[in-house]
Design brief:
Elements: E1 37-41, E2 50-56, H1 60-66, E3 80-85, E4 92-101, E5 112-118, H2 121-132, E6 137-139, H3 144-151, H4 157-168, H5 172-182, H6 185-210, H7 220-239, H8 244-250, E7 252-256, H9 264-272, E8 290-296, E9 299-305, H10 315-327, H11 341-360, H12 365-383, H13 389-397
Parallel strand pairs: 1-6, 7-9
Antiparallel strand pairs: 1-2, 2-5, 3-4, 4-5, 8-9
Helix pairs in contact: 4-5, 6-7, 6-12, 7-11, 11-12
């Protein structure tokens, strides 16, 4: 028997540098050393009953103590009602709930604190100002809490995207799809494919290195070929999903087209439950494309009411008819059970690399092994195990401040 070779793909490792500059009340657990502690309002803007302000980083513990009269940190993950005060002037700010989440058992993997205060703008502003006066704290950037959770291995990149989709979900179907992705279903599928590629590559490298030593079992190369073919077939089948995942995420575009005065505007008003289009017995009332976003049985759709398709001497109506012909194009063309074009790109690139493996193995097994490594890298890019910085910035940029 021979020992399997190859480098395993692993999720981002947690930084294990210890916080040595904090007081004794610091948790002392593994955190990302050298980072500033961030804070932000995590609930919505404007007047509300309760506002949630959160912090993440090594100074979260001191910040929690600084805004309360506590001398020791409260029991983790237990809500406690306390008076909040300005750490500099001792001025009373509010009375609210505090929560302590020592790392690594927190959303970001770092020490975190939450302040549940009354949602008036003045209260929120005062608490945020008090946090900003504490050394080592700064306001969070958009998506920075989630970014730290990713960097500390608490979320994979596909789970991050699922979280973003869940925050922006407007229909029941979007919520269900986003929650499945947040729970890691797509990431687990990709990890399984990556493990298969890792095993196949290990077998191939062992065959290249030790085939002349009679230490390799018979049929190893045939097993690698069969595994690669089966994996490529599975990826191609997954790509042939009619882009359902991304259609659900972004919404189906439905064009209402037909002869003039056929009731198109009445239909879009009925489906929209409001008068979005002018209805008149006179033909040619609609001269431009009128759009309305609707929720149909939990599925998002963008309805487009168009001009009636007929011959007309009216130049304005002629332009409306031309635009109606443009909303009736090929439904297969457009934004891509993969929820983003990025997913489709990396899976397609992985398939192409596996196809090149078939061509390379007849010339040079070392080149064939390189194609398997390329295929594995694309899967790593998909899950964030080997992601480019610019792609990460685009993803986290779409998150709101405080998430």
């Amino acid at each position: 028997m021979w020992r399997r070779l190859g480098t395993l793909v692993s999720r981002p490792a947690q930084n294990t540098r210890l916080c040595t500059s904090l007081p004794k009340h610091c948790s002392g657990r593994p955190i990302s050393g050298g980072r500033a502690t961030i804070f932000a309002l995590s609930s919505g803007q404007g007047k509300c009953g309760v506002a949630v302000i959160r912090t993440s980083g090594p100074a979260s513990g001191p910040a929690l103590l600084g805004l309360t009269t506590l001398r020791t940190l409260p029991q983790p993950r237990v809500a406690t009602l306390r008076l909040l005060q300005d750490p500099g002037s001792s001025e009373l700010l509010d009375r609210g709930l505090i929560l302590w989440f020592p790392g690594p058992h927190s959303f970001t993997g770092e020490d975190c604190a939450e302040f549940h205060v009354h949602g008036g703008p003045a209260v929120v502003s005062a608490v945020l100002g008090a946090l900003g006066s504490i050394p080592g704290l700064r306001p969070a950037e958009a998506g920075e809490f989630t970014k730290r959770a990713f960097q500390n291995g608490k979320l994979s990149l596909t789970e991050v995207e699922g979280l973003g989709d869940l925050i922006h979900a407007e229909t029941e179907a979007q919520r269900r799809q986003a929650l499945r992705q947040l729970q890691g279903e797509l990431g687990q599928l990709c990890h399984g494919w990556g493990d298969t590629l890792t095993t196949a590559l290990a077998h191939l490298e062992a065959y290249i290195d030790f085939s002349e030593d009679d230490n390799i079992e018979e049929g190893v190369l045939e097993w690698v070929d069969r595994t690669v073919q089966e994996l490529r077939g599975a990826l191609l089948a997954h790509l042939q999903d009619a882009r359902r995942g991304q259609r659900l995420r972004s919404g189906a575009h439905v064009v209402i087209a037909g002869p003039a005065n056929a009731g198109k505007s009445s239909l879009i008003n009925l489906l929209s439950r409001r008068p979005v289009a002018i209805v008149s017995p006179e033909p040619g009332t609609t001269r431009d494309v009128v759009e309305s976003a609707v929720d149909i049985g939990g599925f998002p759709a963008l309805l487009s009411d168009t001009a009636g398709i007929r011959d007309s001497q009216d130049l304005v109506e002629q332009e409306g008819v031309r635009r109606a012909h443009d909303r009736c194009g090929d439904p297969a063309v457009g934004p891509p059970l993969l929820t983003r074009a990025r997913h489709r790109h990396h899976l397609q690139s992985c398939c192409e690399a596996l196809g090149r493996y078939e061509q390379s193995k007849v010339r040079d097994l070392a080149l064939a092994a390189e194609e398997l490594r390329a295929a594995r890298r694309h899967l790593g890019h998909l899950t964030g195990q080997a992601g480019a910085d610019e792609i990460l910035e685009v993803i986290f940029r779409d998150f709101c401040i405080g998430k």
